[in-house]
Amino acid sequence: MSAQGKYGINPHQRRGGTPIFKLIGEAKNRLRSVRHKIMVLSGKGGVGKTFVSSMLALALAEKGYRVAILDADVHGSSIPTVYNMNTRMYGSPDGSLLPAEGPLGVKVVATNLLLLSPDTPVIWRGPLKSRLLTEFLAKVEWGELDYLVIDLPPGTGDEAITVTQIISDMDGAIIVTAPSVLSETIVAKAINFVVKQRIPLLGIIENMAYFRCPKCGTVYHLLGKSTGEILAQKYGTRLLAKIPLDPLIGEALDRGEPYIVAYPEGEAAKAFREAVEKIIEIVEKEGGKKNYELKTG
Ligand SMILES: Nc1ncnc2c1ncn2[C@@H]1O[C@H](COP(=O)(O)OP(=O)(O)OP(=O)(O)O)[C@@H](O)[C@H]1O
Ligand SMILES: [Mg+2]
User: CATH number for the domain including 13?
Assistant: First the structure.
Protein backbone atom coordinates (compact mmCIF):
# COMPACT_ATOMS: atom_id res chain seq x y z
CA MET A 1 0.00 0.00 0.00
CA SER A 2 1.34 3.48 -0.78
CA ALA A 3 2.06 5.88 2.05
CA GLN A 4 -0.67 8.14 0.76
CA GLY A 5 -3.21 5.34 0.72
CA LYS A 6 -2.16 4.12 4.13
CA TYR A 7 -2.52 7.53 5.72
CA GLY A 8 -5.75 8.51 4.05
CA ILE A 9 -4.47 11.35 1.86
CA ASN A 10 -4.78 9.61 -1.48
CA PRO A 11 -6.43 12.21 -3.75
CA HIS A 12 -8.45 9.47 -5.46
CA GLN A 13 -10.25 8.79 -2.19
CA ARG A 14 -11.36 12.39 -1.84
CA ARG A 15 -14.83 12.04 -3.30
CA GLY A 16 -15.84 9.43 -0.75
CA GLY A 17 -14.02 11.10 2.17
CA THR A 18 -15.30 13.08 5.12
CA PRO A 19 -17.10 16.24 3.95
CA ILE A 20 -14.87 19.29 4.29
CA PHE A 21 -17.20 21.16 6.67
CA LYS A 22 -17.09 18.17 9.03
CA LEU A 23 -13.30 18.10 8.86
CA ILE A 24 -13.13 21.82 9.63
CA GLY A 25 -15.33 21.27 12.69
CA GLU A 26 -13.09 18.39 13.76
CA ALA A 27 -10.00 20.58 13.32
CA LYS A 28 -11.45 23.36 15.43
CA ASN A 29 -12.29 20.83 18.16
CA ARG A 30 -8.85 19.24 18.13
CA LEU A 31 -7.06 22.57 18.23
CA ARG A 32 -8.77 23.51 21.48
CA SER A 33 -5.98 21.68 23.27
CA VAL A 34 -3.41 24.04 21.74
CA ARG A 35 -3.00 27.22 23.78
CA HIS A 36 -1.20 29.38 21.24
CA LYS A 37 -1.01 29.23 17.46
CA ILE A 38 1.52 31.27 15.53
CA MET A 39 2.08 31.38 11.79
CA VAL A 40 5.29 32.36 10.03
CA LEU A 41 5.01 33.82 6.54
CA SER A 42 6.50 36.13 3.97
CA GLY A 43 5.53 37.39 0.57
CA LYS A 44 8.80 36.01 -0.77
CA GLY A 45 10.54 32.67 -1.13
CA GLY A 46 13.92 31.82 0.30
CA VAL A 47 14.07 34.52 2.97
CA GLY A 48 14.33 31.93 5.76
CA LYS A 49 10.73 31.23 6.89
CA THR A 50 11.51 27.57 7.49
CA PHE A 51 14.74 28.35 9.27
CA VAL A 52 13.02 30.97 11.44
CA SER A 53 9.96 28.85 12.29
CA SER A 54 12.03 25.75 13.03
CA MET A 55 14.39 27.69 15.32
CA LEU A 56 11.55 29.54 17.07
CA ALA A 57 9.90 26.18 17.83
CA LEU A 58 13.16 24.89 19.31
CA ALA A 59 13.74 28.08 21.31
CA LEU A 60 10.24 27.67 22.79
CA ALA A 61 10.91 23.99 23.53
CA GLU A 62 14.19 24.92 25.25
CA LYS A 63 12.13 26.95 27.69
CA GLY A 64 10.08 23.88 28.57
CA TYR A 65 7.00 24.64 26.49
CA ARG A 66 5.17 21.81 24.75
CA VAL A 67 5.61 22.67 21.09
CA ALA A 68 4.54 21.36 17.70
CA ILE A 69 5.39 22.60 14.24
CA LEU A 70 3.15 22.22 11.21
CA ASP A 71 5.06 22.29 7.95
CA ALA A 72 2.32 23.79 5.77
CA ASP A 73 4.53 23.83 2.69
CA VAL A 74 3.01 20.87 0.84
CA HIS A 75 5.31 21.03 -2.22
CA GLY A 76 8.48 22.14 -0.50
CA SER A 77 8.12 20.41 2.87
CA SER A 78 11.50 20.92 4.52
CA ILE A 79 11.11 20.98 8.31
CA PRO A 80 12.01 17.24 8.52
CA THR A 81 15.27 18.02 6.69
CA VAL A 82 16.12 20.97 8.94
CA TYR A 83 15.47 18.73 11.96
CA ASN A 84 17.31 15.81 10.31
CA MET A 85 14.41 13.43 10.93
CA ASN A 86 14.43 9.95 9.51
CA THR A 87 11.12 8.93 11.05
CA ARG A 88 7.64 9.00 9.53
CA MET A 89 4.21 9.94 10.79
CA TYR A 90 2.01 7.00 11.57
CA GLY A 91 -1.73 6.53 11.59
CA SER A 92 -3.63 4.96 14.46
CA PRO A 93 -6.52 2.50 13.96
CA ASP A 94 -9.15 5.18 14.69
CA GLY A 95 -8.00 7.14 11.62
CA SER A 96 -6.02 9.79 13.45
CA LEU A 97 -2.39 10.66 12.72
CA LEU A 98 0.45 10.75 15.21
CA PRO A 99 3.02 13.55 14.83
CA ALA A 100 6.64 12.50 14.54
CA GLU A 101 9.04 13.57 17.26
CA GLY A 102 11.74 16.07 16.33
CA PRO A 103 14.61 17.52 18.38
CA LEU A 104 13.89 18.69 21.94
CA GLY A 105 10.60 16.78 21.80
CA VAL A 106 9.02 19.14 19.24
CA LYS A 107 6.15 17.37 17.50
CA VAL A 108 6.41 17.59 13.73
CA VAL A 109 3.67 17.28 11.12
CA ALA A 110 4.81 17.52 7.50
CA THR A 111 3.96 16.18 4.07
CA ASN A 112 7.45 14.75 3.74
CA LEU A 113 6.84 12.58 6.80
CA LEU A 114 4.08 10.83 4.84
CA LEU A 115 5.97 10.12 1.64
CA LEU A 116 7.73 6.86 0.96
CA SER A 117 10.76 8.83 -0.15
CA PRO A 118 11.49 12.51 0.66
CA ASP A 119 12.24 13.33 -2.98
CA THR A 120 8.80 12.22 -4.22
CA PRO A 121 7.11 15.27 -5.78
CA VAL A 122 3.62 16.18 -4.62
CA ILE A 123 1.88 17.12 -7.87
CA TRP A 124 -1.29 18.63 -6.48
CA ARG A 125 -3.35 21.69 -7.27
CA GLY A 126 -4.78 24.07 -4.69
CA PRO A 127 -7.91 22.17 -3.59
CA LEU A 128 -5.95 19.03 -2.75
CA LYS A 129 -3.35 20.98 -0.82
CA SER A 130 -6.09 22.71 1.15
CA ARG A 131 -7.71 19.36 1.82
CA LEU A 132 -4.44 17.88 3.07
CA LEU A 133 -3.81 20.78 5.44
CA THR A 134 -7.38 20.54 6.71
CA GLU A 135 -6.87 16.82 7.31
CA PHE A 136 -3.63 17.52 9.15
CA LEU A 137 -5.38 19.98 11.42
CA ALA A 138 -8.36 17.68 11.93
CA LYS A 139 -6.78 14.25 12.15
CA VAL A 140 -3.49 14.82 13.94
CA GLU A 141 -3.47 13.99 17.61
CA TRP A 142 -1.88 17.25 18.68
CA GLY A 143 -2.44 16.57 22.37
CA GLU A 144 -2.01 19.28 24.99
CA LEU A 145 0.32 21.90 23.54
CA ASP A 146 1.51 25.34 24.56
CA TYR A 147 2.54 26.43 21.06
CA LEU A 148 1.81 25.37 17.52
CA VAL A 149 4.15 27.07 15.04
CA ILE A 150 3.09 27.00 11.38
CA ASP A 151 5.68 27.28 8.62
CA LEU A 152 4.01 28.51 5.44
CA PRO A 153 5.26 28.35 1.84
CA PRO A 154 6.09 31.64 0.10
CA GLY A 155 3.22 33.94 -0.75
CA THR A 156 -0.34 34.31 0.39
CA GLY A 157 -2.03 31.52 -1.57
CA ASP A 158 -3.97 28.34 -0.83
CA GLU A 159 -1.96 27.14 2.15
CA ALA A 160 -2.03 30.48 3.98
CA ILE A 161 -5.73 30.96 3.27
CA THR A 162 -6.65 27.44 4.44
CA VAL A 163 -4.70 27.71 7.66
CA THR A 164 -6.07 31.13 8.55
CA GLN A 165 -9.65 30.16 7.73
CA ILE A 166 -9.55 27.06 9.93
CA ILE A 167 -7.59 28.55 12.82
CA SER A 168 -9.86 31.48 13.56
CA ASP A 169 -8.21 32.03 16.95
CA MET A 170 -4.67 32.42 15.61
CA ASP A 171 -2.58 34.27 18.20
CA GLY A 172 -0.64 36.02 15.54
CA ALA A 173 1.62 36.08 12.51
CA ILE A 174 5.34 36.66 12.23
CA ILE A 175 6.56 38.16 8.97
CA VAL A 176 10.00 37.14 7.78
CA THR A 177 11.94 39.43 5.53
CA ALA A 178 15.51 39.92 4.34
CA PRO A 179 17.28 43.14 3.40
CA SER A 180 16.81 44.11 -0.22
CA VAL A 181 15.06 46.66 -2.36
CA LEU A 182 12.27 44.12 -2.82
CA SER A 183 11.62 43.75 0.87
CA GLU A 184 9.26 46.66 1.34
CA THR A 185 6.79 45.51 -1.30
CA ILE A 186 7.01 41.93 -0.11
CA VAL A 187 6.52 42.79 3.52
CA ALA A 188 3.58 44.96 2.56
CA LYS A 189 1.88 42.04 0.74
CA ALA A 190 2.26 39.68 3.68
CA ILE A 191 1.20 42.33 6.20
CA ASN A 192 -1.85 43.28 4.16
CA PHE A 193 -2.84 39.62 3.97
CA VAL A 194 -2.52 39.23 7.74
CA VAL A 195 -4.54 42.38 8.40
CA LYS A 196 -7.25 41.37 5.89
CA GLN A 197 -7.57 37.98 7.58
CA ARG A 198 -7.90 39.80 10.91
CA ILE A 199 -4.88 38.08 12.41
CA PRO A 200 -2.80 39.91 15.00
CA LEU A 201 0.59 40.95 13.68
CA LEU A 202 3.22 39.87 16.20
CA GLY A 203 6.11 41.49 14.38
CA ILE A 204 8.83 41.24 11.77
CA ILE A 205 11.94 39.10 11.82
CA GLU A 206 14.66 40.41 9.56
CA ASN A 207 16.72 37.41 8.53
CA MET A 208 20.14 37.55 6.86
CA ALA A 209 20.27 41.11 8.19
CA TYR A 210 24.07 41.38 8.26
CA PHE A 211 27.26 39.35 8.32
CA ARG A 212 29.80 39.76 11.09
CA CYS A 213 33.31 38.71 10.09
CA PRO A 214 34.33 36.03 12.61
CA LYS A 215 37.97 37.16 12.41
CA CYS A 216 37.82 40.94 12.71
CA GLY A 217 34.21 41.59 13.79
CA THR A 218 33.51 43.98 10.90
CA VAL A 219 29.83 44.03 9.97
CA TYR A 220 28.92 43.74 6.28
CA HIS A 221 25.47 44.22 4.79
CA LEU A 222 25.79 41.60 2.09
CA LEU A 223 22.19 41.68 0.88
CA GLY A 224 21.73 45.42 1.19
CA LYS A 225 21.11 47.86 3.99
CA SER A 226 19.30 46.46 7.01
CA THR A 227 15.87 48.07 7.15
CA GLY A 228 14.20 46.09 9.95
CA GLU A 229 13.48 48.99 12.29
CA ILE A 230 12.30 51.28 9.51
CA LEU A 231 9.98 48.62 8.12
CA ALA A 232 8.53 47.79 11.52
CA GLN A 233 7.87 51.47 12.17
CA LYS A 234 6.36 51.99 8.75
CA TYR A 235 3.87 49.16 9.20
CA GLY A 236 3.04 49.89 12.84
CA THR A 237 4.58 46.73 14.23
CA ARG A 238 7.74 45.66 16.07
CA LEU A 239 11.03 44.21 14.97
CA LEU A 240 11.28 40.92 16.86
CA ALA A 241 14.82 40.07 15.78
CA LYS A 242 17.62 40.74 13.38
CA ILE A 243 19.19 37.43 12.47
CA PRO A 244 22.69 37.55 10.96
CA LEU A 245 23.84 35.61 7.94
CA ASP A 246 26.04 32.95 9.43
CA PRO A 247 27.92 30.18 7.59
CA LEU A 248 27.57 28.04 10.73
CA ILE A 249 23.82 27.85 9.97
CA GLY A 250 24.48 26.02 6.71
CA GLU A 251 27.28 24.01 8.27
CA ALA A 252 25.01 22.77 11.10
CA LEU A 253 22.29 21.94 8.56
CA ASP A 254 24.74 19.89 6.47
CA ARG A 255 25.85 18.08 9.60
CA GLY A 256 22.23 17.26 10.46
CA GLU A 257 22.10 19.22 13.69
CA PRO A 258 19.67 22.13 14.14
CA TYR A 259 21.69 25.34 14.40
CA ILE A 260 20.32 26.48 17.78
CA VAL A 261 21.21 23.09 19.30
CA ALA A 262 24.63 22.95 17.63
CA TYR A 263 25.59 26.55 18.48
CA PRO A 264 23.57 27.59 21.52
CA GLU A 265 25.86 30.57 22.10
CA GLY A 266 25.78 31.73 18.45
CA GLU A 267 24.66 35.27 17.69
CA ALA A 268 21.63 34.05 15.74
CA ALA A 269 20.70 31.57 18.50
CA LYS A 270 20.68 34.40 21.03
CA ALA A 271 18.59 36.55 18.69
CA PHE A 272 16.01 33.75 18.41
CA ARG A 273 15.79 33.42 22.19
CA GLU A 274 15.25 37.18 22.50
CA ALA A 275 12.55 37.01 19.82
CA VAL A 276 10.86 34.18 21.71
CA GLU A 277 10.81 36.26 24.90
CA LYS A 278 9.10 39.07 23.00
CA ILE A 279 6.60 36.67 21.39
CA ILE A 280 5.70 35.12 24.75
CA GLU A 281 5.29 38.59 26.21
CA ILE A 282 2.91 39.55 23.40
CA VAL A 283 0.75 36.43 23.22
CA GLU A 284 0.68 35.48 26.88
CA LYS A 285 0.88 38.78 28.68
CA GLU A 286 -0.28 41.57 26.40
CA GLY A 287 -2.70 39.33 24.48
CA GLY A 288 -2.04 39.32 20.75
CA LYS A 289 -5.67 39.85 19.84
CA LYS A 290 -6.15 42.83 22.09
CA ASN A 291 -3.05 44.34 20.56
CA TYR A 292 -4.46 43.88 17.08
CA GLU A 293 -7.79 45.48 17.97
CA LEU A 294 -5.94 48.50 19.35
CA LYS A 295 -3.83 48.94 16.23
CA THR A 296 -6.60 48.63 13.72
CA GLY A 297 -9.18 50.52 15.72
N1 LIG B 1 20.53 33.67 8.63
C2 LIG B 1 20.94 32.73 7.79
N3 LIG B 1 22.28 32.52 7.61
C4 LIG B 1 22.71 31.55 6.77
N5 LIG B 1 21.91 30.74 6.06
C6 LIG B 1 20.57 30.93 6.20
C7 LIG B 1 20.04 31.92 7.07
N8 LIG B 1 18.67 31.85 7.01
C9 LIG B 1 18.39 30.87 6.15
N10 LIG B 1 19.52 30.33 5.65
C11 LIG B 1 19.60 29.27 4.63
O12 LIG B 1 18.95 29.78 3.46
C13 LIG B 1 18.24 28.74 2.80
C14 LIG B 1 16.77 29.16 2.64
O15 LIG B 1 16.17 29.21 3.93
P16 LIG B 1 14.72 28.64 4.18
O17 LIG B 1 14.51 27.32 3.52
O18 LIG B 1 14.46 28.73 5.63
O19 LIG B 1 13.87 29.76 3.42
P20 LIG B 1 12.31 29.78 3.13
O21 LIG B 1 11.87 31.20 3.18
O22 LIG B 1 11.60 28.84 4.04
O23 LIG B 1 12.25 29.22 1.65
P24 LIG B 1 10.92 28.78 0.85
O25 LIG B 1 10.32 30.07 0.35
O26 LIG B 1 11.45 27.92 -0.25
O27 LIG B 1 10.01 28.07 1.81
C28 LIG B 1 18.43 27.50 3.65
O29 LIG B 1 19.46 26.75 3.13
C30 LIG B 1 18.80 28.04 5.01
O31 LIG B 1 19.58 27.15 5.77
MG1 LIG C 1 10.29 27.25 3.60
Answer: 3.40.50.300
